Amino acid sequence: MSLKALELGKANLEEFSATMIELAEKDSKILAVTSDSRGSGKLVSYAEKLPEQIVEVGIAEQNLVGVAAGLASTGKSVFAVSPACFLATRSLEQIKNDVAYSNYPVSLIGISAGVSYGALGTTHHSLHDIAALRAMHNMQIVIPADNFETREVITYAAQSEKPIFIKFGKKNMPHLPRVNKKFEIGKASVICEGSDVAFIACGETVAPAYEAARLLEEKGISAEVVSMHTISPLDEAAILKLASKCKAIITVEEHSVHGGLGEACAAVLLQNQAIVPFKIVGIPDEDTVPGSQGEIFDYYGISGEGLTKTALNLLK
User: Fold this and answer.
1) Is there a contact between 167 and 143 (Cβ–Cβ < 8 Å)?
2) What's the average model confidence in pLDDT over 221-236?
């Protein structure tokens, strides 16, 4: 089944909001803290229905994280919502000390992640947050690929006793197929199986990886697609399994090629002497081109056609 044939769901942010309302109506300990971002975070309906379970701190990301940590220290389950490009930079020290080091159950929700802000440019792109947070002890990192993974991770986060960073984009996402419809933190989700080339992708890049798999199938090439929704802790066993069954591996991410999913996978492969042709597809170390998310994806080869070309070249 091609990507175009898949049923189109809502934006993951909208699924996040719907799940938050459903959970918070049943549990008064669940709170949202926003930095002038209830609109962009799709939490307007949440605020109208549960006005006592939302805190607005204004455009002050450091305060956002500090307030969220303080509330979590009293037994609340706190979701701190802010644009990803600011959440992981302006408040990095607060995330490190107030949340991760202090081990408070704060869910850091980075909205409009990656290049979702498109033409607003580099100041509004979050292409370095995973690199920074991967190096931080005691921080789970999850990037859902579709509505299913979004609902599952928010449900998990509401009950988790550990800090977690979750990234969401803005576009409507297709309902992706799965070999096993089960979600588990730290365990990759297989979208489709194959034996020639493997795509390890996360977030909104899983859909174009799946499209590439379907295009490669038309050329007689068998491609496996894995949603590596959890970047930390990383499913090392899944990566090594792919290296043993496939002739090449391509990682795909809406992040800098430095310090993200690709380099994490490369480290696992190299340290386990699992040597296969390997390619990281992401945003290179250069001035990012302006444009919509789709235009930027196309420019950097994060599309069905672009990833098909990368796979064919790598398999040579």
Assistant:
1) yes
2) 98
Contact partners, residue 192, CB within 8 Å, separation at least 6: 177, 179, 210, 213, 223, 224, 225
Picking from 120, 167, 138, the residue whose alpha carbon sits closest to that of residue 288 is 120
**Over the stretch 25-47, which tens digit does the pLDDT of each residue have?**
999 999 999 999 999 899 999 99
* Length of the chain as a residue count: 316
Q: In the chain, what is the straight-line distance between the N-terminal and C-terminal CA atoms, in Å?
A: 26
Give the list of residues 6+ apart from residue 275 with CB closer than 8 angstroms, or none. Answer: 269
Of 182, 293, 296, 283, give the one whose Cα is nearest residue 229: 182
Tell me the one-letter amino acid at 34: T
- Tell the burial category of 155 from Cβ atoms under 10 Å away from its Cβ (0-12, 13-18, 19+): middle
Burial status of residue 283 (CB atoms within 10 A of its CB: 0-12, 13-18, 19 or more): buried
Q: Is the peptide bond before 83 cis (omega within 30 degrees of 0)?
A: no
Average pLDDT, the chain: 95
* Cβ-based neighbour number of residue 8 at 10 Å: 11
Which pLDDT belongs to residue 225? 98
Q: Are 231 and 291 in contact (CB under 8 A)?
A: no
Over the stretch 124-151, which tens digit does the pLDDT of each residue have? 899 999 999 999 999 999 999 999 999 9
Is 72 in contact with 106 (CB distance < 8 Å)?
A: yes
Residue 188 contacts residue 226 (beta carbons within 8 Å): yes
33: left (phi over 0), alpha (psi -120 to 50) or beta: beta
CA dist 268 → 1, 225, 250 (Å):
32, 18, 14
Cα(161)–Cα(163) distance, integer angstroms: 7
Structure tokens at 74: 């009293």
Give the pLDDT confidence of 296-312 residue by residue, as tens digits.
999 999 999 999 999 99
What is the residue whose two structure tokens read 């189109």?
Answer: 8
For residue 208 the two structure tokens come to 């174009």
Show the domains of the chain with their CATH numbers.
9-173 (3.40.50.970), 176-315 (3.40.50.920)
